[in-house]
Design goal:
Layout: E1 10-14, H1 18-32, E2 37-40, H2 46-51, E3 55-60, H3 69-79, E4 84-89, H4 94-102, E5 107-110, H5 115-144, H6 161-172, E6 180-183, H7 190-199, E7 207-211, H8 217-225, E8 226-227, E9 239-240, H9 242-245, E10 250-254, H10 261-273, E11 275-277, E12 284-286, E13 290-295, H11 299-304, H12 310-316, E14 319-322, H13 333-348, H14 359-364, H15 371-385, H16 394-400, H17 424-438, H18 443-450, H19 454-465
Parallel strand pairs: 1-2, 1-3, 3-4, 4-5, 6-13, 6-14, 7-10, 10-13
Antiparallel strand pairs: 8-9, 11-12
Length: 480
């Protein structure tokens, strides 16, 4: 399997010296894994190449035949303001560097600078451009009000607006190679969200999940990085680590908040350097997977208390999404209840039982410390004991600690599905029209349906006919 070029956008290297171009290209690939590069020796070809699209970063020499680097820099800034330019020149003059920065250069380097400085500058520019593109994508998805690929989130049952915003964010950062931190209480469905994030990432490789809680440092290193034959006593055969298994895909590290401090250092180095060593090997390997981590812990508090490394914390939360607890999105209880009833009935080979009408309202009053996992366990327990047509409330009441039955469920809010709520005047007019339609135009019956007196209804109809739909009266019976 061929790995996708890195980064997602193209980088154009422009210099009239072919040897320097090849050297810079190889340096970027070997030192930072940057492979999506294009070489150009003729300065006059740069603008036509940019017109074709796909290039977001240009590394530009200043002294070239034809168009000079400064002329190109000014033209790129004018015609392609979204394209960043880094000057890599043989000219080491302060006034030239200042002039280039004023023309819009992102950075300025001299060819005799150390390779690490140039590579680091390119990496910073790439990160800046990725963040810019991701921020635009987030805004676009949030304005749209939901994900563009809802099928990727089909395994997550919800009608919560907060969750739809989470989906939009996950989709917006799906193509980013930077880490994603998923937080939320136990049982909220973090793993399902990670699977959705992998599904919308368009990565060809697998999703490889590792629960790192309780792993000591040696086991963590062996699990992630693998080992060569003879790396330690008992290592009779080489073993691929999970990082290599996830190449081209997603590496999911669950319960990252419980990772030992010594292992945190190894993970930080992997993310910073983009490379690792199998145990017993001196040959580096490139990280070719997107890293997603999840935890139920408050990492910000752990970092403040010194339990979690600050540098790793900020590296991991480049992208961060928090899944709200079930008690914060009670509108999801009823669809989840139906979903788990279907799932439990199928698993146990029973007909799907009918839930009592008051059950959803009763569960909505419970805080669900175990979140969705707890609700699922309640439903499976109730279905396992079920014998009749109507599902018994008994096991639910015992689980939530109620000794008395729940009150009857209130009637559903008829305005809940409305995208735009009607005004009071519009709602009153709709109610009057509907009551008159149901009563066949009989005002006495219509007033009874509406819970007001017949004179109050008559007065309202007269005002509506006169072009004033508002009820002028103050009495209780005129409260529509």
């Amino acid at each position: 399997m061929t790995a996708a070029p890195t980064p997602a956008f193209g980088i154009l290297l422009v210099d009239d010296e072919p040897a320097w171009l090849r050297s810079l290209s190889l340096t970027l690939e070997s030192a930072a894994g940057i492979t999506n590069t294009f070489l150009c020796q003729e300065s006059r070809d740069v603008l036509p190449l940019l017109e074709k699209g796909g290039i977001s970063l240009v590394l530009l020499d200043l002294t070239m035949p034809g168009l000079s680097g400064e002329e190109l820099l000014a033209a790129i800034a004018e015609r392609h303001p979204d394209v960043a330019c880094i000057i890599v020149s043989g000219v080491n003059q302060i006034d030239t560097a200042v002039r280039c920065m004023k023309l819009g250069a992102f950075d300025y380097y001299v060819k005799t600078d150390e390779e690490d400085r140039i590579v680091g500058g390119v990496a910073r520019a790439i990160r800046m451009l990725e963040l810019r593109d991701e921020n635009r994508a987030v805004k676009s998805r949030l304005v749209a009000g939901g994900p563009a690929h809802p099928e990727a989130f089909a395994g997550i049952v919800t009608r919560s607006r907060a969750m739809l915003s989470v989906f939009a964010y996950i989709e917006a950062v799906a193509q980013s190679p930077q880490p994603l931190l998923v937080t939320g209480e136990s049982g909220v469905g973090k793993e399902n969200l990670v699977r959705a994030a992998h599904a919308v990432s368009s990565r060809d490789g697998p999703l490889v999940a590792v629960n790192v809680a309780g792993l000591d440092d040696a086991v963590f290193a062996d699990t992630l990085f693998g080992h060569v034959r003879g790396a330690y006593t008992g290592a009779e055969a080489p073993r691929r680590g999970m990082v290599e298994e996830a190449a081209g895909g997603t590496l999911f590290l669950d319960e990252i908040g419980d990772l030992a401090v010594a292992s945190q250092v190894k993970l930080l180095r992997l993310l910073q350097e983009g490379e690792y060593f199998a145990l017993g090997s001196d040959q580096p390997k490139r990280l070719r997977a997107r890293v997603i981590v999840a935890t139920h812990r408050d990492l910000a508090a752990d970092e403040a208390d010194g339990k979690f490394r600050r540098d790793l914390y900020f590296r991991l939360r480049t992208h961060h999404v928090h899944i709200p607890a079930l008690r914060e999105r009670k509108e999801d209880i009823e669809p989840l209840l139906r979903h788990f009833l279907d799932e439990a009935a199928t698993a146990m080979g029973k007909p799907r039982p009918t839930p009592p009408p008051e059950l959803a309202a009763c569960l909505a009053a419970y805080p669900f410390p175990g979140n969705i996992r707890e609700l699922r366990a309640m439903v499976f327990d109730a279905v396992s004991l079920h014998t009749g047509r109507m599902l018994s409330m008994k096991s639910f009441l015992a689980a939530i600690g109620r000794t008395r039955p729940c009150p009857a469920a209130p009637p559903p809010n008829p305005f809940a599905p409305f995208e735009r709520l009607p005004t009071f005047a519009e709602a009153a007019r709709f109610l009057v029209d509907e009551a008159l339609a149901r009563s066949g135009g009989n005002q006495t019956l219509a007033a009874r349906l509406l819970g007001i007196s017949q004179p109050a209804l008559s007065k309202r109809l007269k005002h509506a006919a006169a072009g004033n739909p508002h009820n002028p009266g103050n009495g209780h019976n005129q409260g529509l």
